[in-house]
Amino acid sequence: MEQFPVVDGELSVGGIPITQLAQRAGGTPFYIYDRRLITERVNYLRRALPKEIRLHYAVKANPMPAVVQHLSSLIDGFDVASSGEMQVALDTPISAKNIGFAGPGKTDKELRQAVAADVTINMESEGEMRRIAKIAEESGIQPRVAIRVNPDFELNSSGMSMGGGAKQFGVDAERVPAMLKELKSLDLLFVGFQIFWGSQNLNAEAISDAHEKTIGLAIRLSEQTSSDIQHLNIGGGLGIPYFPGDKRLDIRPIGDHLDKLLLDLRVHFPNVDVITELGRFIVGEAGLFVCEVTDVKESRGEKFIITNGGMHHHLAASGNFGQIIRKNYPVTVGSIGRDAKSEIVTVTGPLCTPLDILAKNIALPPTKPGDLVVVFQSGAYGYTASPDRFLGHPSISEMLV
Ligand SMILES: *Cc1c(COP(=O)(O)O)cnc(C)c1O
Hints:
The chain is α/β, with parallel strands linked by helices.
């Protein structure tokens, strides 16, 4: 994890030693994010992807307001999935029309807020469309809407599938023509499609294949319904390495392939804005979770490091956020002695459940109470994706340096 250099035997973030950051946080546990790494990641995306691609940040990956503000000067738009996230995005200088609001089960209250804010609503069903039309009538504001399409293809690769087959997300591609026909009788401003097929994918070929099918589907849908589109959101899905054996994704071939696909798209839609929405790829590797050893004990020949940070702070690292087989996130200690010999240990949190494990059977240098334990790859789906109230421990802090 070379993005966080070890200086004088101590891990550092943004040039600040981790123990100093712990003092600054007022104690452990805490999350720490590095703004320079986030900026570099966006620059990398800009270099590798076609120039005209519009980059959106999926706020749910890390909705910390300071992170969202920082990104607002680097990217072209936000994708939000709740009115809470929408408010954070609206507080930035990004224009409302470049904020896309997706998510099944938007309430009337959320829809009213979205219409009043003039964001782009990615509609997830015909029923939602009719509710928006009713709100439009009441408010006198014409809502800006797109259709979130549940594609008619599924990704043939690992990663988290969020499209294809029967899903609670979006409108099945084959239902879109009828929906668009109805839409044209309503007072809604139709701007385009969002086609989201999955997440956390490390296979460049599978991603390029999904892009090809996505753009093909968008062209077919628009032609079938003779609808003009101003924007096309082709999803995101770029993954980051979490586990031993995960290979880092090289996005240059994905960008080259997209270049060719865009030529084809331009024949049909010369002016369409093509959007990709990314969360973890932008922020995931820029963050650490830091906790502190409270006890070291042995049980029947195995060594346990008990910390004050657990699944209530970092559900994903505990393996309970969508993993089928539990694997360890990369974990280390804050201070790395030069010739300390590693030993095999299991790192747990303080909760009274066997699920509260941060790392099982990993090699760590000898630790004692007071030492810091660090979990890498924690910039996305960390604190906000964790059951913070479980067992009633106090909330923890997040910092951006
Ligand atoms: C969660 C989500 C994303 C972000 O996924 P990452 O894996 O964090 O890049 C993007 N778009 C939609 C619609 C999502 O639900």
